[in-house]
Amino acid sequence: MIPNLSHQENIKQDYFAFLSALSATKYSGEIEKSYASRLAVATDNSVYQCLPQAVLFPRSTQDIVEICKLAQDAQFKNIRFSPRGGGTGTNGQSLSNDLVLDLSRFMNQIIELNEGEGWVRVQTGVVKDQLNDYLRPFGLFFSPDLSTSNRATIGGMVSCDASGQGSLVYGKTSDHVLALKSVLVDGQVLDSAPLMGDALAEQSARQDSIGAVYRQVIETCAGKQPQIEQGFPKLNRFLTGYDLKHVYDAQTGSVDLTRILCGAEGSLAFITEAKLHVQKIPTYRTLFNVKYDSFQSALQNAPFLVQANALSVETIDSKVLNLAKQDIVWHSVSRLITDVPNKIVEGLNVVEFVEEDEQIQAQKVNDLIIKLDQLIASEEAGVIAYQICNDLDDINKIYGMRKKAVGLLGKTAGSAKPIAFVEDTCVPPENLAAYIIEFRQLLDDHNLHYGMFGHVDAGVLHVRPALDMCDPEQEKMLRNISDKVVALTSKYKGLMWGEHGKGFRSEYSPEFFGEELFTELRKIKAVFDPQNRVNPGKICTPINSDELLVSVDAVKRGTFDRQIPIKVRESFKESIDCNGNGLCFNYDTKSPMCPSVKITRDRRHSPKGRAGLMREWLRQLANNDIDVLQLEEDLYAGKNASIFRKFTNTLGKRKGEYDFSHEVMEAMQGCLACKACTSQCPIQVDVPTFRARFMHLYHDRYLRPLKDYFVAYVEQYAPVMGKAPQFFNFFMGMKLTATLTEKFVGMVDIPLLSSPTLSASLKNQDVVEFDLSRLQALTDAQRKEYVLIVQDPFTTFYDTDVVRDVVLTIKKLGYKPVILPFKANGKPQHIKGFLDKFAKTAKDSAQFLNQMADLNIPMVGTDPAMVLCYRDEYKQALGENRGNFHVQLFQEWLLTRLSGDKKASNGKQYFLLGHCTEVTAEPTSSTDWAAIFNHFGAQFINVPVGCCGMAGTYGHDAAHLADSKAIYSLSWEAEIAKRERGQCLATGYSCRSQVKRIEGQTLKHPVQALLEIL
Ligand SMILES: Cc1cc2nc3c(=O)[nH]c(=O)nc-3n(C[C@H](O)[C@H](O)[C@H](O)COP(=O)(O)OP(=O)(O)OC[C@H]3O[C@@H](n4cnc5c(N)ncnc54)[C@H](O)[C@@H]3O)c2cc1C
Ligand code: SF4
Ligand code: SF4
Predict the structure, then answer these.
(1) 611 in ligand 2 pocket by Cβ < 6 Å?
(2) pLDDT one-digit tens code per residue, 908-948
(3) What gap in Å lies between CA 454 and CA 468, rounded to an integer?
(4) DSSP letters along 678-728, please?
(5) For the purposes of burial, counting CB atoms within 10 Å of the CB of 8, is it exposed (0-12), middle (13-18) or buried (19 or more)?
């Protein structure tokens, strides 16, 4: 049995006192002190891990003023803070052992748009894609781009001065910041924008911290202009923190403090609002995918493409390309980046042209076509082929793949994982090719594997060497390589931090800036933050203080992970491997990725949060000398803890006894087990799998709630109740039953059984009865006429019409359907972590289905979640013993049997709202359905939606009712409201029952629509 895990890093006394005092002020935000909440922000995408004392979630600028003012009290003089947005930093920028101020949860409003003047004012917790989705209907966009655009916040972008694809033309974030509102550490609110003349004089004359800031910044930036000009690199990406070069304009005499704050990595102030320049979305866009025989050829050819007046040129190597090919993202781009016959594509340049004028655009595109054709014909420059893409959706898909590429680099077999520490170096583009040769040599000399891609137009290279941070020797190599790369970039007149900022690499700042300029940086830090209280140690420390800079040798995640035994790490790979890139925080409500974090905005309820908690849980078990794998084996062998012990443990829990496992459980319970993470996460962090394992072990210590049994045994009681549906519905339909079920079981809106039963509804339909010996006696030719229908408890007993219509459709298509006897699938047991029971159910069911597979007749299932369970959970539970049986989804089966000419259009139009497990695990499902409907003359449109909020039984859990409905309202509600209900289709039983309970009317399964048009 797992022990009670009572150890946790306690909050320091003065922080505790500060948080209590803060609760008594007008501060209206949230304060989270739980160990789980602190762990959820203890990592970013870097190799570092810092546990903060607590996390504050302010709701307004005023809340941050309250925090800072309170911190001025002498008793709180040691309290320090770090601002945080999306937490996607690659170098630990937002990590802190102090207080984290997370602006992403509440401060995410778009305040004001001025279309005429081309600006928008936002709170800094707004996500970049959220902003552009808002601006799109106005024909506008915020142009600086970054790969993490679906989760990085404006505050993080401003503070790291983010940039990416298109930076040659669009520049960096700082180029588009018109004004900022910030709170200084003493609680003063600083409104910054370019100032000159009297306005500047007035601010400089102030006798408060703002006046001091102006005076120092002027003294540095105006007074040291020649040294700054001399010392700062002449690069498109110039440099982050603090950008002394662009603050002072000698011609106009203007001073712009926003330039100091941009790229300051939260080390000067809390930025709460930003006024941003927005521009017109270009009318004409064309993208070339130029293919090369080597990565080096692609790099060397990039300047030629830039000279062709391209907006951007992005280079990808074959390693990254091959990783993308194995990921779900490839389905969206495979036809846009096809293979070249008899050649191997080892490098790719993604080249984009944008224009307002159609003719100019056509000219640029034609010019490049001619040049590329010449290169191919003469076999020059390594160009082997190219493809052109004008469709906006397709262009976005290619960039989607490119944006996912950094994350994909993390998905590598073995314990050495590609990690960020030299991942964004920048050199003048003309030096890039030579620089890369030396860089590669350096990595090869250390026998390191890596993938490469980058913004070659700007000279930025993304490289993540693979190191095992659990191995102390390899950890030392990180320092060694870092030092050498700093020297190498310096040799090629470049920067170590070309895109992602400094964070724990700040220790290289003095060397980079030189003593004189670095002293100026420290003076600036000192006027903003004399006591070094805001993101201390990042970029620089205040002058006249003996505070230290953070170092690349700081405590890393590997320090904790290596405490977990290797065999446990390997067994729990699906949580250990999370590299924190934050893709699972995807803000897009139409993406299936993690509905639970979307609705709660609580990072504990994300795949990353859950993976982090699981890692810590495994670490604590290991430190308690618990062999978690042995414990699991014991459970499978039936060696459970006694009910009495479970009872006393549960009593302790009820009395409030602390156990870290409860915090982990809370996060796991919020998971819908929708499996979007399993396929959408670039590393394939698989929460439902480790969640089930956790629950299995947790409930060996603590009693289960009644609802777990209610869910897990549905496949046992539904067939019994399904024999007399009217009788049971009589009781189930009573208000009293609903009240009692909610109160004592914790379940709501329990669906009624279908009536008539399946066999009754097929009574006069001349359906062949299942008879194994008769089926075995069929000839091979006869078998081709048959289809076996695999039942599941939900459609058979609660949505019988769908199974009936599957049978009738198969018949109408000229085949003989045979309904197989009902066999429990086990998915509900898996969801609730009854893993020993699930293993038995799966074994039994697999044995039966393997026997049926021997008939060599196709087997078709109706509900995607249940069918996909045979493919995934069965493989995990049974391994080799699963056998080779294959249950197809209806569309998979029918697609291979379409024959004859396509029918003429019947004018019918249908819309599919996909099931999240299905669309993520089988991304071709909607196009398969579309091909089938088109074949029969109907139009079929896929509607992008997120999760419906039901996800099996999650939506029936009383504790989740509000969240379930809120998830539905994120995307389904509006999409259904837009259309005729009869034209909307859903493959998932869960989705149909969610629509039924919310809209009062169910949707059809696509098979039912097909039956109408056949
Ligand atoms: C897979 C991957 C790809 C990436 N690709 C790119 C890319 O293409 N281009 C690029 O530029 N970067 C890229 N990054 C780096 C990162 O996404 C950016 O730096 C991003 O701007 C950080 O935003 P965030 O909201 O996640 O900030 P966080 O990581 O939360 O914070 C970053 C820094 O900003 C500070 N900060 C955040 N909000 C505030 C605020 N309101 N006030 C003051 N300080 C604040 C923090 O203290 C911290 O120092 C990538 C990262 C990953 C993981
Ligand atoms: S769970 Fe996956 S997507 Fe989320 S942070 Fe971890 S690796 Fe990235
Ligand atoms: S299964 Fe779904 S809800 Fe659970 S963590 Fe994964 S994406 Fe989130």
Answers:
(1) yes
(2) 999 999 999 999 899 899 999 999 999 999 999 999 999 99
(3) 24
(4) HHHSTT---HHHHHHHHHHHHHHHSPPPHHHHHHHTHHHHHHHHTTSHHHH
(5) middle
- pLDDT tens digits, residue range 243-283? 899 999 999 999 999 999 999 999 999 999 999 999 999 99
Torsion of CA 908, 914, 920, 924, to 10 degrees: -10
Instruction: Count CA within 13 A, CB hemisphere, residue 396.
Output: 6
Please give the distance, rounded to the nearest whole angstrom, from the Cα atom of residue 681 to the centre of ligand 3: 10
- b vs e for 585-624, b when ≥16 Cβ sit within 10 Å of the residue's Cβ? bbbbbebbbbbbbbbbbbbbbbbbbbbbbbbbbbbbbbee
Q: Say what the pTM is.
A: 0.94
Cβ–Cβ contacts within 10 Å for residue 79, how many? 24
pLDDT digits (tens, 9 = 90+) for 207-236: 999 999 999 999 999 999 999 988 777 766
- CA-nearest residue for atom 4, ligand 3, is 671
* Strand ranges (E), 810-858: 816-819
Task: Rounding to the nearest 10 degrees, give the CA dihedral for residues 604, 609, 611, 615.
Answer: -80
Q: What percent of the chain has pLDDT over 90?
A: 83
Confidence bin at 413 (pLDDT 50/70/90): confident
> Dihedral through CA 203, CA 207, CA 210, CA 216, nearest 10?
90
User: Tell me, what's the pLDDT at 237?
Assistant: 60
Length of the chain in residues, anyone?
1014
Is the CB of residue 500 less than 8 Å from the CB of residue 89?
A: yes
Please name the residue whose Cα sits nearest to atom 7 of ligand 2. 578
Could you tell me which of 274, 480, 304, 329 has the C-alpha nearest to residue 380? 304
Question: Identity (one letter) of the amino acid at 944?
Answer: P
The distance in angstroms from the start CA to the end CA of the chain is 57
Nearest CA to ligand 2 atom 1: 608
Q: Does residue 578 line the site of ligand 2, with CB under 6 A? A: yes
Residue 499 three-state SS: coil
User: How far is residue 215's CA from residue 206's CA, in Å, rounded to a whole number?
Assistant: 9
Q: How far apart are CA 409 and CA 710, in angstroms?
A: 42
What's 744's DSSP letter? I
- How many whole angstroms separate alpha carbon 866 and alpha carbon 915? 12
Q: Is the CB of 609 under 6 A from ligand 3?
A: no
Question: Ligand 3 centroid to 411 CA: how many Å?
Answer: 19
Model confidence band, residue 344 (pLDDT cutoffs 50, 70, 90) = very high
Identity of residue 893: W
What pLDDT digit, counting tens, does each position of 866-880 carry?
999 999 999 999 999
Using the Cα atoms of residue 186, residue 191, residue 192 and residue 197 in order, give the sign of their dihedral.
negative
Which sign, positive or negative, has the C-alpha torsion 665, 666, 668, 674?
Answer: positive
SS (H, E, C) 402-467: HHHHHHHCCCCCCCCEECCCCCCEECCHHHHHHHHHHHHHHHHHCCCCCCEEEEHHHCEEEECCEE
**Residues pairing with 887 in the sheet:** 859
pLDDT-based confidence at residue 238 (cuts at 50, 70, 90)? low
556 secondary structure, DSSP code: B
Q: Please give the Cα distance from 71 to 66 (Å, whole number).
A: 9
Run of H or E residues at 909: strand 909-913
| Alpha carbon nearest to ligand 3 atom 6, residue | 677
Give the HSE-up count for residue 626: Cα atoms under 13 Å, Cβ half-sphere: 18
* 169, 145 contact by CB (below 8 A): no
Distance 489 CA to ligand 1 centre (A): 22
Q: What distances in angstroms separate CA 851 from CA 845, 848, 859, 993, one per listed residue?
A: 10, 5, 12, 33
Coil, helix or strand at residue 940:
strand
Ligand 2, atom nearest to 608 Cα:
1
Please tell me the predicted confidence (pLDDT) of residue 1007.
Answer: 97
Strand partners, 768: 818
Query: Which range is least confidently modeled, 53-62, 239-248, 278-287, 365-374?
Result: 239-248
Rounded CA-CA distance 292/315 in Å is: 10
